[in-house]
Design a protein that fits this description.
mainly alpha, 3 helices, 0% strand, elongated
Length: 65
């Protein structure tokens, strides 16, 4: 297929070259503030909501019988 379709062949070559560049590009450490923002978001999004009894049941328990 790649022998016949030059467009795909060129795109594959571009992807291979980009992969090669990424393999040799040094990575930088994230800023501490960025990490703190991610951790704060995770902490706040995983907190269980405070729900009262009336949130779960619309009627008091005596009326459910």
């Amino acid at each position: 297929m790649l022998q016949e379709n030059w467009g795909h062949r060129e795109k594959l070559q571009v992807l291979k070259e980009a992969q090669e560049q990424l393999n040799y590009t040094p990575l930088e450490e994230p800023r501490s503030q960025s990490l703190q923002n991610v951790l704060d978001h995770l902490y706040n999004s995983n907190k269980p909501e405070k729900r009262s009894y009336t949130t779960w049941y619309s009627k008091p328990a005596a009326d459910m019988l």
